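Let's study today's protein:

:::
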Amino acid sequence: MSFSISPDQRQLGYSIKNAARAVDCSERTIYNLVDSGKLRLIKVGRRSIVPASDLRSLVGE
């Protein structure tokens, strides 16, 4: 499975695991970015979702 972040992609958010894959880092790094306020984490039921727009901003797209 391949992940990439592109402006035309319609995916609104990523799980922690998929967000880490998309930006080629560890899940712990994603949690650290959330803790530092650089990424938001949205709870949807029991799931934690990282908004795709936050990931695009993080990588400068």
Notes: The chain has a mean pLDDT of 88. The helical segments are 16-22, 27-35, 52-58.
